[in-house]
Amino acid sequence: MDVEGVAGESIEERFARFHSRNPQVYRELRDLALHAVRRGRRRGSMKQLFEALRAESLLATEGEDWKLNNSYTALYARLLMACEPELEGWFETRRRVSAGAGEDAGWE
Fold first, then answer.
1. How many CB atoms are closer than 10 A to CB 36?
2. Cα dist. 43→37, 40, 83 in Å?
3. Are 46 and 77 in contact (CB under 8 A)?
4. Mean pLDDT computed over every residue of the chain
5. Is 73 inside a domain boundary?
6. Per-residue pLDDT tens over the stretch 17-68
7. Checking CA distances to 77, which of 8, 12, 47, 51 falls within 20 to 30 Å?
């Protein structure tokens, strides 16, 4: 396995690398979230979706020591809401600590 990240690398850079190496994670999260929306859930929790994927024994990821890094929950929530119209506003998000003054470091 690769080392989680290069010294000085931002969370966004580590996430981008993980996401590109593991597109199945996005697909699984999207499918779980859309299933919940279509069953009537009005709000969602990315941490809950991460736990559901962790419990799924068939999910395998590459590049990190952890199957799913909790540091990526906010980034996956923002990415899903930006890319999936049915999920727009479904996850509650807060201002990112790593965002610069006056900017949101989200994926919109």
1. 19
2. 8, 9, 17
3. yes
4. 83
5. yes
6. 999 999 999 999 999 999 999 999 999 999 999 999 888 756 677 766 667 8
7. 8
Contacts with 49 (C-beta within 8 Å, 6 or more apart), sequence order = 29, 32, 33
Torsion of CA 88, 91, 97, 100, to 10 degrees: 0
Is the residue at 105 inside a domain? no
Do the Cβ atoms of 43 and 77 come closer than 8 Å?
no
- For 42, the token pair is 């009005």
What residues make up the domain containing 17?
11-87
17 located within any domain: yes
Residue-level length of the chain = 108
Answer yes or no: is 95 within a domain.
no
Task: Tally the domains of the chain.
Answer: 1
